[in-house]
What we know:
heterodimer, A: 2 domains, disordered N terminus, B: 2 domains, two-stranded antiparallel ribbon, binds adenosine-5'-triphosphate
Amino acid sequence: MSNAAATEPAAPLLQLSGIDTYYGEIHILQSVDLHVKHGELVCLLGGNASGKSTTLKTILGIVSPHLGAVVYDGNDVTRTSTSERIRRGMAIVPENRRLFGPMTVLENLEMGAYLRPRGDFEEDLDRVYSIFPLLAERRGQLAGTLSGGEQQMVAMGRALMARPKLLLMDEPSMGLAPILVERSFEIIQEVHQAGVAMLVVEQNANVSLSIADRGYVLSTGRIVLEGKASELVQHDELRKAYLGR
Amino acid sequence: MDRDRTDLPPENVEPGRPRVGVDEWVAQVDQRRDRPTGIAGVARRIGEVVTPPIRLAIVVVLAALVPLWLGEGDLFNYGIFVLLYILLGLGLNVVVGFAGLLDLGYVAFFGFGAYFYALLSSEHYGIHWPAIVSIPLVVLATSLLGLVLGIPSRRLLGDYLAIVTLFFGQAFVVFVNASNPKVAGKGLTGGPNGVADIDPVSFFGYEFTTRTQQYALLLAAGVVVLVGLHFLSESRTGRALRALREDPLAAEAMSIPVNRLKLLAFGIGAGIAGFTGCMFATLLTAVTPGNFDVPILITVYAVVILGGFGSLSGVILGAVVITVSFQFLAPENPQNNARVLFYTIILLAIVLAVRSWWRLLLVLAGTVGLGIAVHAIVAAFAPTWTSGQAVEAGRFGDLISDWVIIPQGHPDFGNVAYVALVVALLVLTQMRPTYRLLAIPAVAYLAAVVWETSFVEQPAVARWILFGALLVVLMNVRPQGLLGTPRVEIA
Ligand SMILES: Nc1ncnc2c1ncn2[C@@H]1O[C@H](COP(=O)(O)OP(=O)(O)OP(=O)(O)O)[C@@H](O)[C@H]1O
Ligand SMILES: [Mg+2]
């Protein structure tokens, strides 16, 4: 808990230090250090099975690390339950969206706002509808019957309903047409500009680095590269691995 | 993405042609909405007009009229049992339907409520607490028991929870039946004999003695529970329960209090079962272990599955169909009942399989015509094959004997026909829809032949086969249950 970050004037919103996460016997994350400052947009890159989703799960408390600490908003939350972390302002757009298929768009959004005071519901809803006008149109449709792109909007809208301070996103561009990838990154930027700190897991290094403040690259459970997004784009190894150039 | 985009000048647009840059799908979503025709369409439109309060009013009025045309005995066998199963089904529906927790120990709550009430208000220990005290107490105790049994559901899911709860259900039966511990000088639960001489239900001196009064009491209770659950399912908590059923992990990630909701569902379900137990005990004035064994569990599940998991109206429909068909086929009832039900099932199966009016008429006419033709041809060439008489067919006897081929002196025919029917049904399910339409009359006729030559001889077997066939037909046509909503899989 007491590390360098705590003594800095502006302590980061989220700080992982020395995280080791196992699934049973399998060692996945190996001494991962990572932080997200207030209002910052950070992207986490890495190949398949490099442990990106596992990192998000560790942050959210769905799996707990063997070693290391997760500090959020000045408090050690390593042993705190998932729902408590969400109550304190984390939200996630999970991998594969995981919408509640037989429920309507509106009901899905409502579930995202489960912890919000009921009085604020309409206001939160209007805010999400103004970002995703399509959702207002489709509010009565069953989420499972939406197209992949539309589902992605619901998943993001659902996470935003909780008015998170820290939004975790697992591959928001997965399965989207190029134009929708662009659109969803525009939306990510909009949300970011509204002051929400974000940690975005992506395979799409080019686009995500173009909007991010900083980035990390994960490889077989270790952070192998980190730095300003503008610098990472120039990095030779990264370009070779992800940009194919 | 939005329908108001005007970046294309309107004169460029040919009417009816898709426009570039405008998401026609969204703009046309109303025009493109599927408008089902035929039977399904009529049902849909009726469903749109009949809102839940109207539906409830209709059901209550119909239910209130039932005592007018059923005698006391039938009112007990049909009316009261339907209501008991509705109550049980509603409780189970909260656990399995709303929250998706596979609870196979459910009947134990029903039994616990019944026995507990029996101990508080009967000759067994000479305690005669008034119902107004014992019923709330029992409901509370059963809910608490439900909460306790719900605790493993926090960690166990699916099959594992099912096994644990099934064990609990069986443990309950063994406890009341075999262990029957001695308390205050006598067996607590009365062993195999159970507890008898339970007080009739009375509130503030008003005794519910006639079946009509008891029916009215149960009906009122059913309405209260139904309305309560309706509001639960329409509430945010109800939607959270559904979210939990669909994807517990995602629900957890939305910070829905998953564990608390599971316990809530168990508690509510158990409470309703406990209440039903009280009613059951006081109406039958005796309880025995056999009342709370696996067959009841299966029946309650059948009620909920048939009606459609999660659907309240479905529970009512399921309870009516299952209880009525059960009683209708009871051995003490006339043999012809089974025949009437059999032909109704065939008709129902055809109606549900053929979804347009004119095709339905064709298929029905085809079935009748096929029968007449087959009968005429067989009668002309091999008279002994049609000279049999329909068994106990009453006033339909001649009609059936002139339509169905019932051979005389060919004892194996029924069995051969039965095997042929099973094969035909299997083939039917694999056929393409157009061919299936052509094959339905033949299979329906074959089914009639099997019934008249083979099943009528074995009423006890036929009852179960019929009951099973009814469920299979209904569930095949609507896998989601009669009034359930179809599952939507996330792509
Ligand atoms: N519950 C689990 N039990 C065992 N192993 C797991 C579990 N979840 C993930 N793993 C393993 O952990 C490793 C990292 O998985 P993770 O989901 O974090 O990868 P990822 O970086 O998100 O990959 P992708 O880009 O393909 O989503 C993988 O090898 C995976 O097989
Ligand atoms: Mg992943």
